[in-house]
Amino acid sequence: MNVVPDTSVVIDGRVSAKVDDGEYEGATIQVPEAVVAELESQANEGFDTGWDGLEELQRLADLADAGTIELEYVGERPDAVERGHAAEGEIDALIRDLAAELAATFLTSDVVQAEVAKAKGLDVAFVSAEVRGETEIDRLQVQNYFDDETMSVHLRAGAAPMAKRGALGDMHYVEVADEPLSDETMDEYATEVVNAAKESRDGFLELSRNGMDIVQFRDYRIAVARPPFSDGIEITAVRPIAQTDIDDYEHADELRERLLEQQRGVLISGAPGAGKSTFAQAVARFIADNDYSVKTMEKPRDLQVGPEITQYTELDGEMANTADALLMVRPDYTIYDEVRKTDDFEVFADMRLAGVGMIGVVHATRAIDALQRLVGRVELGMIPQVVDTVVYIEAGQIAKVYDVRTEVKVPSGLTAEDLARPVIQITDFETGRPEYEIYTFNRQVVTVPLTDDEGSEDSGVDRIAKQEIEREIRSIARGHVSVELKGQNTAVVYVDDDDISAVIGKGGGRITDVEDRLGIDIDVRTHDENPNYRTGGSGGSSGSGGGSGAEEKGQLVTPEITSRHVIVPVDGHTGETVEVRAGGEYLFTATVGRGGEVQVSRGSAIAEELEQAIDRKQTITVHTA
């Protein structure tokens, strides 16, 4: 009897197991060189599967030395092109062809490989995962760590099993067993999960890459990580712990009416584990029960919805392709879980603007943050057409609902009639009180809170206006700039004596241009006229003045010039006000952004000065202001 095994059974150790059982005793095991090459490649890359397969080859060699079997290596090693296309089945095809040529029994534990081989007329011996009791496919060993309050189980070689347990909003990360798991046990669990996904009608592989498999088995999403992607075998299994109806939530009547009166653009936001997906499932079931056609877009597909709702994932690796297909299907509503990257927001917006009702699940720590994630990704004026409702979930309950709409008006806190512009108004759904406005102010998109921060003397509008005045004047003045607001549309700017003429300009033309752009009357004075200047108040000290030696030395930086900005990297001062100097001379003051950098728009006066300093190879330093 001649037997040709493929890579899957060699890795599983099932060839030697069949010899030990007596089934293949005395047989000639003909191992393809293509199998050896694939195992060698995996072992060289650090994958356990490669080492497991090489150990099986050694066991077969020992059996051959004992006279139990005959062992031969047959065929030719695949070339680089064939190895590069292993994922498309090139290596599998070589092994099948060799089995046909040798008229041998083809041994595999790969379901797809077995079916293809049968279709080609080969004598196939298919071996599935070892059966552990009669219900092996019905229940995975990983499931034994779950109880009614377990949301996720976290298993790792060398560590005790952990789980997140509790009610929504009150989860705790706890040990669920005392003894650490061995590498052998973890490998057994991982193999069982992947095989169940391949063999069970209730499971499928969402993702399979070198080092990572993501499986959906019934309502469990299971991620299996292996070296070298991870530093040890790790399994993370997640499942929903609650199913809710929309009636279980506050504002249920208003939300039901809102969702049914027309197709909406809704963002369901919240922190991880807050219950966003649970609420999205409730919404999906509700609108499906009210004569709407509902589909989902998910990667992985783990929303728990009824059979009447088809769940789609990426088509050819792109959600944009999935969206194109869905536009042909024309659902009334699509649930998009989860919207994270720029491409996701663009797909969400395209489908919404095509007339499809869209409900997206978004990570956010505040309700307003979900909407701000659209800024810069979607044209500002289109945002209310893309998203008109934001639902913020906290501890499994609706904590906030926003209504989003556009009005052409003067932004709150500003009075000049010529400042009227499109304003996105974000209103509390329950009280009807406006809480935020988003609009373009001096060529920048700003989000302005309409309720004052506790303990803050300046309103949101005041802070924005002050920042913009400072930015405009600093683009002109070389020394320190201080701004004091006197009212909703008046301000006093304090600058160095040497900067007075430059800021005012010939005949007052330059400061008039700034006033026209901002819609604010500005009185320009010297620092000597600022009563707080010398007492350490809001006026501060001169931008090019003294300070400690450490402050004078500053942080040496290398600016980057892009097509639109000059970017100054700043290490360790996110959110702080800093001064940028060239060759020790003050250039400007700015606030370090979240990305740890200061961006200056090219074409501005300060950008030109900075670029000239770079061209002159002057030392650029950053100092805390």
From TrEMBL:
One term of GO molecular function: RNA binding
Record keywords, A-Z: RNA-binding
Pfam families: PIN, T2SSE
Keyword RNA-binding in record: yes
Region (Disordered): 523-554
Domain (PIN): residue spans on this chain: 1-115
SUPFAM superfamilies: P-loop containing nucleoside triphosphate hydrolases, PIN domain-like, Prokaryotic type KH domain (KH-domain type II)
PANTHER family: AAA FAMILY ATPASE, MEMBRANE PROTEIN
Name listed for the protein in its UniProt record: ATPase
